[in-house]
């Protein structure tokens, strides 16, 4: 599971 | 950034601007669910709090500001400027039945138990179901103006394109975000019935009306 703290999607 | 992600964002932008222009040009918000629009404003507000904490790119920041601005402008048009044309009698979906369970779920199932992350998760979950009052309203009145159906199509297409973007990113970048993917699937599935009607009726020049 990938936790993406840097969210580049809108 | 791949082509599906970009066209998804543009489709979302087209949807939002189309709705705003429709209301502005016709001076009326008849047939539009104010509850769905308030929920979209809430979605953008809770998701884009990172505008103040995390800079990603000029594209990212500019789009966030446009989405937020247009979304608030739409809510303002519906509840203030063109309030008289708002079809409140048909906008009867109970928003609290969506917001409360979605809030609870965001607390329970998230990537990280921090305020910003919980709010981001809340926005993802809420977005997936925020269109329900609008779809419910169309079911209730049995019809929708053609321009409203173009708006809904562009809005549904946006998340469908994001789904392809996530498949792409999984294969080429090894990136995946399960919360976004599951919610994105739910969101897209909710539009399927509408997509069918749009393709079989609206694209053949007929108005979208449901059998009584």
From TrEMBL, chain B:
InterPro entries documented for this protein: ER_ret_rcpt
Annotated keywords: Cytoplasmic vesicle, Endoplasmic reticulum, ER-Golgi transport, Membrane, Protein transport, Receptor, Transmembrane, Transmembrane helix, Transport
Subcellular localization, as worded in the UniProt entry: Cytoplasmic vesicle, COPI-coated vesicle membrane; Endoplasmic reticulum membrane
Membrane topology: Multi-pass membrane protein
Main localization of the protein described in the UniProt heading: membrane
Domain of life: Eukaryota
GO cellular component: COPI-coated vesicle membrane; endoplasmic reticulum membrane
Membrane-spanning ranges: 62-80, 119-139, 151-172, 178-199
GO molecular function list: ER retention sequence binding
Gene Ontology biological process terms, A to Z: protein retention in ER lumen; protein transport; vesicle-mediated transport
Record family assignment: Belongs to the ERD2 family.
Protein name in the entry: ER lumen protein-retaining receptor
Source organism of this protein record: Phallusia mammillata
